[in-house]
Amino acid sequence: MTPFGEKVRELRKERGISQKLMAKKLAISPAYLSALEHGHRGRPSWRLIQQIISFFNIIWDEAEELENLARLSHPRTVVDTSGLSARATELVNLLNQDIRELSDEKIEKMLKIIKEEP
Questions:
Q1: Residue 13: CB atoms within 10 Å
Q2: Euclidean distance between CA atoms 108 and 61, whole angstroms
């Protein structure tokens, strides 16, 4: 699942809207919406993001949050470490190698470090 997909699913469930109805209103297939929610599709287009924002009638901070989540939601990311230190390359490769074995707790700790949260 991606952060964007998780948020869309949350918004949809909060409002009691089925995937089928939302997909119909957005003029996309229910299968595509399901794949988007589950992270089996890449980042949505800017146009689709705007349609979703409009569909849920969200504004300002919540709309900006959804746009930011979409930006961070590509399920297959390539990291170019050329020109960076050997340690940076090591970090990226270890993360790539071990990401599936990391617990949610460890992932949260790492996110806090990266985001510099207290």
A1: 10
A2: 23
Residue 22 CA neighbour count, 13 Å, CB half: 26
User: What is the pLDDT of the chain when averaged over all its residues?
Assistant: 92
pLDDT tens string 8-31: 999 999 999 999 999 999 999 999
Six-digit token string for 70: 């979409």
pTM here is 0.73
Token code pair at residue 21: 């109805």
Q: Which of these, 63, 80, 75, 69, lies nearest to 99 by C-alpha position?
A: 75
pLDDT at position 1 is 84
Helical axes 60-71 vs 46-56, angle rounded to 10°: 150
Closest CA to 56 of 21, 8, 19: 8
Rounded to the nearest angstrom, the gap between the alpha carbon of residue 44 and the centroid of all alpha carbons in its chain is 10
